[in-house]
Amino acid sequence: xxxxxxxxxxxxxxxxxxxxxxxxxxxxxxxxxxxxxxxxxxxxxxxxxxxxxxxxxxxxxxxxxxxxxxxxxxxxxxxxxxxxxxxxxxxxxxxxxxxxxxxxxxxxxxxxxxxxxxxxxxxxxxxxxxxxxxxxxxxxxxxxxxxxxxxxxxxxxxxxxxxxxxxxxxxxxxxxxxxxxxxxxxxxxxxxxxxxxxxxxxxxxxxxxxxxxxxxxxxxxxxxx
Length: 225
What we know:
Elements: H1 7-18, E1 21-22, H2 23-30, H3 37-45, E2 49-52, E3 61-64, H4 66-72, H5 84-98, E4 105-107, H6 109-116, E5 125-129, E6 134-141, H7 148-163, H8 169-173, E7 177-183, H9 188-198, E8 207-211, H10 218-222
Parallel strand pairs: 6-7, 7-8
Antiparallel strand pairs: 1-3, 2-3, 4-5, 5-6
């Protein structure tokens, strides 16, 4: 009987999908919370993964090497260093999917297109399954300087486009397709929720706000994992 993918394989696929990962996340997902240092060092020595700086308190993030990405069929662009905006987007998506009690799974763009066809909003999507239903989240990692009014305008535009989509208009109404705004401070969550409520957007779609750290707020957040 096949034992399924090895831990190394699952870790490589995790890095390829999410573009980046953090040691606390890796240990939570693949090591039952135990130390991953020896395995990470072996994979670095084998040049299957790479380690990058750019995070506070000398934290590092991990990516596939270009050679490993090619071997596994991931775009090589996912192995390059990211600027602060892209890094924060990938951090937010990683946190939303892998750091909470509720596990979600990032969906590849090609898989979304095969399922829903053309016209799907660009940007990251993650699937979540609970006891009652599957839900597809459209993720928006909000920059710290993004004003509430700007995010509300974006939501209105996205909702209008989805309401005309042949396959997504109904899931939008039934809350199987929903929006998740990720902000990098916990104090902003209730304020943005109130702005969305006052704008009347929650009558037509499920919209939620959660905390997900940026590179500026990551150091404190990882202490709580």
